[in-house]
Amino acid sequence: MRSTVPLVIAGMVALGAIAPASSQPTQGTPVETGGPRPLPPEKQKMILDQVRSSPDLPQANLSEPLRVGMMIPEEVEVLELPQDAATTVPTVTTYSYIIVGDQIAIVEPETRKVIQLIKR
Fold first, then answer.
1. Range of the domain at 99
2. Rounded to a whole number, what is the largest CA-CA distance in the chain?
3. Domain for residue 65, yes or no?
4. CB–CB of 105/117 below 8 Å?
5. For 55-85, what is each residue's pLDDT tens digit?
6. Is residue 38 a contact partner of residue 92, using CB atoms and an 8 Å limit?
């Protein structure tokens, strides 16, 4: 019996030494995991210029005021960003938009969530 006690104690010590190391964060490059990011002012301007140059674009009718964070109903058609804007601004190619009155709402197509409003 006595010969197993040192083994048990050695095992407990070994496990105790391993456990704290596994709970420590690993070093490396931080990865941003947040949601969609609003567009910077220069990219907003490029999109605004594109929308202004196409006056025949459809206006969306919503049952509530447009606001960041709202979900656009499925029955409302979201438009793809103009090709020139998508080419000039490659980071916005995944976004869509709608026009409501004097505002352009940038929409994340997967969730249909408004992530930004741009005044026309």
1. 41-119
2. 90
3. yes
4. yes
5. 888 999 999 999 999 999 999 999 887 655 5
6. no
Strand pairing of 96-100 and 103-108?
antiparallel
Residue 60's nearest CA partner among 7, 111, 18, 117 is: 117
Q: How far apart are CA 57 and CA 42, in angstroms?
A: 22
Tens digit of pLDDT for each residue in 82-113?
655 555 555 545 788 999 999 999 999 899 99
> What is the H or E stretch that residue 97 is in?
strand 96-100
In a domain, 107, yes or no: yes
Say which CATH number the domain at 95 has: 3.10.450.160
Specify if 45 maps to a domain. Answer: yes
Give the number of domains in the chain.
1
Question: Residue 71 corresponds to which tokens in the numbers above?
Answer: 């979900």
Q: Kindly list the strands in the beta sheet with 96-100, ordered across the sheet, starting from the edge strand earlier in the chain.
A: 79-80, 96-100, 103-108, 113-119
Cα 39 to chain centroid distance, Å, stands at: 11
User: Does residue 60 lie within any of the structural domains?
Assistant: yes
